[in-house]
């Protein structure tokens, strides 16, 4: 019996393979998020050339670097470039509602396998964009890739949450965010001008967005289906038991089967919960409030503003190569996500979230003061730079990774797909709003010479840190997990 108890928390090779294969979709998500920014000037030049508003013989243009004083000012180029960036989030918003449908239709593993077709098609469209009109093909590819990422950002945490042993559920759930930040870092590194972010190789840089889907498609047939899906949704007890044995090795699965039986009985007693029913139901209001507030706070924390603004801050601080400092921010992002993997099951979800948001708020204040006063006091530039690194560190400790897997932990099998779909839509919608409004806020604050947008982004966080009722763990289902 002691051996059985040990095996119940053992990390097996099959479990490692299943989690690694799943988070390849998260890696692709992160790569797609970051890949579009590095070659911006080069892509704008090709857009302008395709639209007939720029040529090699125009004075002041450089065929090597793509620099042009008037290039970014042309309204057609600006419109198509903005659409290339924003269309990714639009695809994610639309597909986030389909996460539960795709996951339940053919299963978690087959669902991830089927949607890889979207990623491959998107990668081919962007990789072959020079063969036709680059702006049309890139925008089409980005939309399809966003549609894919909206699905995978829900399916991956759902699958990992259902196959992970209780003792490692938080740590394994954090791997989704870890893969995302690693993907962002990879895109920043290979997007450097001397690697792929240049006039000749930028289509390959964008086309590589679909590469992880190819590897994932080869590995997914080796991964066991979620035992919770097999037993609770399909009623296949023997298949669920076999899946548990594959994931956890030789052990007595009776306790896990009994837990799933209780959840299945509970799910059978309650009707299938739709998104509308979930919103209107008072039964799930507590869990839904926590889930949505966490996704709101993740996006409105200002983390994207930091990534957009970090290069400018480093330039103003006198850094000779600000692009490498920005890559350093990506590296810190990755390192502290690893720290979260270690701490999340020991310290708790709630504590890490509150510490992370509180630390980010303090860093935003320090950064604002540093940027305002660095023209008067040279040492304030170091305050600004330090605040950036600490800001990212606090984000990845809790507010970054936890919202992606906490939804699956807070809800039972019945309302879980609807909750994940609603939370994903919330996250993607906030992402789109930030992507569209940040340049205007930044321009406005630059006119005032005070980057208050870093503080504006934390108004919601202050409400999140000191809510009157949100964090009273009343739900018997989620109390221990959330704590």
TrEMBL record:
> What compartments host this protein?
Membrane
Molecular function as annotated in GO: D-glucose transmembrane transporter activity
Q: A single GO CC term, please?
A: plasma membrane
Where it mainly occurs, coarsely classed, is membrane
Give the highest taxon in the source lineage: Eukaryota
Membrane topology qualifier: Multi-pass membrane protein
Record-linked PROSITE patterns: MFS (PS50850), SUGAR_TRANSPORT_1 (PS00216), SUGAR_TRANSPORT_2 (PS00217)
The answer, when asked if Transport is one of the entry's keywords, is: yes
Where exactly are the transmembrane stretches of this chain? 12-31, 79-101, 113-133, 139-160, 172-196, 323-344, 351-373, 385-407, 419-441
Q: Which residues form the signal peptide?
A: none
Presence of the UniProt keyword Magnesium in the record: no
Family the entry assigns: Belongs to the major facilitator superfamily. Sugar transporter (TC 2.A.1.1) family.
**NCBIfam families registered for this protein in UniProt:** SP
| Name used for this protein in its record | Solute carrier family 2 member 2
